[in-house]
Write a structure and sequence with these properties.
By secondary structure, the protein is mainly alpha-helical. The chain contains five helices and three strands.
Length: about 160
């Protein structure tokens, strides 16, 4: 008998995950969830407009960031040196950095829609499971240096 996939997240995290998957669906991005080795990455297939999310990621708090990151690959588009993205996270590969920034802005827009009023980036990052490698970019959001008004809110 197949095992039922159980993801242990708080209600707030589950609402955010639902929001992100709905955000993807509205933008014609399919998704597949799987549960494998905790260090096996999530993936994006640009040509298929589909993302694959490892719901067993070793840092469960990062799952929403990862979902938004993979959506970012599809939304950013453009040529890809590889069909399969995200074999390593946190690299300086332009495509990965762009997807990270997209993810950060998507989560920030969601946070604003929820009425969260963070006064500094560290609490925002902790609340949304944003990896520490994004601290410089998150700081820019709070100083309005590089905030991009994205079309990121579902009505």
């Amino acid at each position: 008998m197949p095992k039922k996939m159980v993801v242990y997240n708080s209600d707030r995290e589950n609402e955010l995950i639902d929001y992100l998957f709905n955000y993807a669906i509205v933008r014609d991005i399919g998704h597949v969830c799987y549960k494998v080795d905790p260090y096996y990455p999530s993936l994006a297939w640009k040509e298929k407009r589909e993302i694959g999310i490892n719901m067993n990621w070793h840092n469960q708090a990062e799952i929403p960031f990862i979902i938004a990151h993979e959506i970012g690959h599809i939304m950013i588009g453009g040529p890809s040196l590889k069909q399969l993205c995200c074999t390593t996270y946190g690299t300086d590969i332009g495509e990965e950095k762009s997807a990270d920034i997209y993810s950060l802005h998507l989560l920030f827009a969601y946070s604003c829609k929820q009425g969260n009023d963070f006064s500094e980036p560290t609490s925002f990052m902790q609340a949304y499971g944003i990896p520490s490698r994004m601290s410089t970019e998150a700081s820019k959001l709070f100083t309005k240096e590089e905030y991009i008004e994205p079309d990121l809110i579902l009505d």
